[in-house]
Amino acid sequence: MREAPSPTDVTHKKSMQPRIDTGSWTAKGKSAKAAIGSAWSKFFHTSGIPGRRADDPFFIAAVRETQKWGE
């Protein structure tokens, strides 16, 4: 069985990317935050994954690792 990521892997670290909730980016009339939130919400819903699973340390670590690599 795998061990959970260490706390240093899932704690808040300063990101080099700008925050999506402060930017003025839009996609088809939606803010980036709304578009991303909608996409993740649809994924969780259609996959039958409870929304509370987004708090899983492995999910958080995967999202943060993805953010490091950019687009």
Provide a concise account of the structure shown.
The protein has three helices and two strands; from the N terminus they run H-E-E-H-H.
Describe this structure in words.
The protein has 71 residues and is mainly alpha-helical. It has a domain at 27-71. Helix content is 46%, strand content 6%. The protein is built from 3 helices and 2 strands. It has helices at residues 7-10, 32-47, 57-69, and strands at 26-27, 30-31. The chain has a two-stranded antiparallel sheet with strand order 1-2. Strand 1 and strand 2 (30-31) form a beta hairpin. The longest helix has 16 residues, at 32-47. The protein is flat, with a radius of gyration of 14 Å. The N and C termini lie far apart (31 Å). 0% of the residues are buried.
Q: Which helices and strands occur, and which strands form pairs?
A:
Blueprint: H1 7-10, E1 26-27, E2 30-31, H2 32-47, H3 57-69
Antiparallel strand pairs: 1-2
Form type: flat
Report the major sheet. 2 strands, antiparallel
What portion of residues belong to β-strands?
5-15%
Structural class: mainly alpha
SSE succession: HEEHH
Number of strands: 2
Task: Please compute the radius of gyration using only Cα atoms.
Answer: 14 Å
If helices are DSSP runs of H or I spanning 4 or more residues, what is the number of helices?
A: 3
User: Which regions contain 5 or more consecutive residues with pLDDT less than 50?
Assistant: none
What is the percent of helical residues?
40-55%
* Arithmetic mean of pLDDT: 76
Strand order of the largest sheet: 1-2
What gap, in angstroms, lies between the N and C termini?
31 Å
